[in-house]
């Protein structure tokens, strides 16, 4: 086994277990593979994770965000406040409906939207706020919801990285007008590809169901113009098996994080806000000096790592204005993009591997 001890540790490891394979085969053999009973059961069961909210399954997390913005009627001229320090999908969904992303800075400790900066960015054109529960840490939803209520704004939670995260005992996806989850293979749970929208608003849930299926509830009785963003029953069957295992995986991620918190001394380990439950989609440290050098050192030691995200969204090509970043003032976003490094945290890491990760980080950061 000594060879295995030195095997490279990947930054992430998607899980496809026997239960998922059997579930997929069972649905394939049934011949009923498109959106049907498995999707309905998955929606029902996912509701338990989000305080009983209505759940609408779709074909990706990006579709979940886009469909929610469509259902809320947002489009050209409407401003939606979003962090630039996120995956491009957050802002892409806003642009895909023709609305305008207004980029706001993050809190340095949580890497999530800074409520004070949100307040300063609200204009008469603002229609919504899209907090991102980045890395599995909940955004400051108490303050963000208070601002939204005060200004009558929709809140679309991007919970793509935060299945099961909570603040003050309340789960993410149960704060805003809607919550949007992703089931991409590297997320804390997956359905190969897939997404889920959660909402307390039954009318909004019905509109979302129409929009994902060509505007139809009854076949060929189209009520509105809709898209095809359906989840297949094969995907839902896989998602249902993953959902059963999510609590155990989350505990394992949290235990891995606790180990690394104790063992890593040479860089800044993640912090958890008071009352927050962090589900560690990523375990992200800050490396103020020569982050890329440390990453190369870790690679030599067989320890995978990743930078989420090296380029804030406002600096990506489609978001430049006349070839330049827009007039955004995002110092914490720029700093985070230079400093962050995500270490392996997936549930099946062994104590020996965790020890290797911590030792390599400590050695690499003090070399
Ligand atoms: C993964 C992700 C998405 C998009 O989800 P997909 O299922 O890949 O479309 C959106 N936002 C964030 C923050 C993500 O990490």
Automatic annotation (TrEMBL):
GO terms for molecular function: transaminase activity. Its cofactor is pyridoxal 5'-phosphate. Keywords: Aminotransferase, Pyridoxal phosphate, Transferase. Belongs to the DegT/DnrJ/EryC1 family. This is DegT/DnrJ/EryC1/StrS family aminotransferase.
